[in-house]
């Protein structure tokens, strides 16, 4: 049963690699390795954790008030993800999120509109 669960987690994480507009639910964190010193983390501290750097400073500055707080926003993924790492831009509809640890879809990303990759 455990192997089946892991298999479906891998399949579902690959579905997120699609380019387009997504709804992101996660947390903005400081990062020593990211070019802008911050990244957005989805499914934090799980095997399906994904991290997203920001395309430019404008996108990051819009999200900075949510530093270390559960949040959600809509943004675009322009290029295919590199495993569990990606780049997000054109951020809009930023909201504070109230975590529900009992809900399976409390954190993650959902495809809203599929687009062609750059």
Kindly summarize this structure in a few lines.
The protein is an alpha+beta fold.
Strand content: 35-45%
Q: Tell me the number of helical segments per DSSP (H or I, 4 or more residues long).
A: 2
Round the mean pLDDT to the nearest integer and report it.
85
Which parts are unreliable, with pLDDT below 50 for 5 consecutive residues or more?
5-16
User: Could you say which overall geometry the principal axes of the C-alpha atoms support?
Assistant: globular
Strands side by side in the biggest sheet: 1-2-3-5-4
Subunit arrangement of the protein: single chain
User: Structural class of the secondary structure composition?
Assistant: alpha+beta
H/E element sequence: HEEEHEEE
Distance between the termini: 38 Å
The residue fraction in helices comes out at 10-25%
Q: Sheet bearing the most strands, described? A: 5 strands, mixed, barrel
How many structural domains are formed by the residues?
1
Question: What integer value in Å does the Rg equal?
Answer: 14 Å
Q: What is the number of E strands?
A: 6
């Amino acid at each position: 049963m455990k192997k089946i669960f892991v298999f479906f987690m891998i399949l579902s994480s690959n579905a997120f690699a699609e380019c387009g507009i997504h709804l992101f639910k996660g947390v903005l964190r400081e990062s020593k390795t990211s070019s802008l010193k911050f990244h957005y983390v989805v499914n934090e501290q799980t095997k399906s954790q994904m991290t997203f750097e920001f395309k430019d400073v404008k996108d990051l500055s819009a999200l900075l008030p949510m530093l270390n707080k559960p949040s959600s926003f809509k943004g675009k993924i322009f290029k295919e993800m590199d495993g569990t790492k990606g780049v997000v831009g054109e951020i809009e509809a930023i909201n504070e999120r109230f975590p529900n640890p009992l809900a399976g879809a409390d954190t993650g990303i959902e495809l809203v509109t599929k687009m062609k990759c750059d």
